[in-house]
Amino acid sequence: MASLREMQGAFAASLRDDSVACRVMPAANLSIYRNNSEISFRSALESSFPVVRRRVGDDYFRQLSAHYRAKFPSRSGDLHWVGRHFAEFLLEHLHGSDYAWLSDLARLEWSREQASIARIDLPVAADVLGRFAPNQLEHLVFTLQPSLSLLASDYPVFSIWNANQVDNAPPVSQSLGGECGMVRARIDLLEIRPLEPRLFSYLSALAAGAPLADAISAAGLDQSGLVNALGFVFTEGLVCAVRETGT
Question: N or C terminus of the chain with fewer C-beta within 10 Å?
């Protein structure tokens, strides 16, 4: 007699593949569960990737969902996590095609999903820098908001996402080239925002734990650029803590 674990495994497998035998229940009843499982999976994917769905259309998105589910079935009781491998799947599935850019668009949309469940820490104001001596400033490390994601793409995915916040949006020309930007949670909204490349490099270095001097160097900022970059991270509430390297 099959163990409970074996029966559960067979039931789960038969929900994804109707060629897999399952003796837990009659085939007619199982088909109801199979249909509901497929719809729930696809609905969760549609909720996480609305712009990808809009750009490819419902029929093709349904096909992508089926192929994706076959390769990356849900491993959690929480449907939020259904899409965690979708960008990875699209990167391989669409490689070399005219739709390869959809992988980066999916990365952007998944960052938005992750920001939606991330905590928002209390930001610190720029006057926190006054607690440090001038010779300490270059060694300061910033802790940024947990919801912040930084994304660079060879495609204009931020323009594509913004354009597709209305129905019947026309395609965005790929001739716009690559873009970089950030995704973060605010108290009242989820923000998707393109960034100027040097500011993006600066933020990326800070997010990786680089001290202020290294972040400035990585971004190639002059004094004016540094003032603007510091102003940005503090006025946008991105800095949650400041410490000196090694402390």
Answer: N
**Quick one: CA dihedral 37, 104, 118, 210, positive or negative?**
positive
Query: Can you tell me the distance from the alpha carbon of 108 to that of 11, in angstroms, rounded to the nearest whole number?
Result: 34
Task: Specify whether 126 is located in the same domain as 245.
Answer: yes
Whether the pLDDT of residue 46 is over 50: the answer is yes
pLDDT interval class at 77 (50, 70, 90)? confident
Radius of gyration of the chain (CA): 23
Higher pLDDT, 152 or 18: 152
Q: Which tokens sit at 185? A: 């949670």
pTM of the model: 0.85
Phi-psi region of 191 (alpha: psi -120 to 50; beta: other; left: phi over 0): beta
Alpha carbons within 13 A on the beta-carbon side of 147: 23
Is 80 in the same domain as 42?
yes
Say how many domains are in the chain: 2
Residues 118 and 85 in one domain: no
Q: How far apart are CA 194 and CA 93, in angstroms?
A: 27
- What is the bridge-based pairing of β-strands 190-194 and 179-185? antiparallel
State the chain's mean pLDDT as an integer.
Answer: 89
Looking up tokens 């999916």, which residue turns up? Answer: 106
Contact 215, 206 (CB under 8 A): yes
Same domain, 89 and 112: no
Enclosing domain of residue 73: 1-100
26-38 residue pLDDT tens: 555 556 556 677 8
112 with 88, same domain?
Answer: no
Q: What is the pLDDT of residues 16-26, one digit of tens each?
A: 555 555 555 55
User: What are the DSSP E strand ranges found in 3-129?
Assistant: none
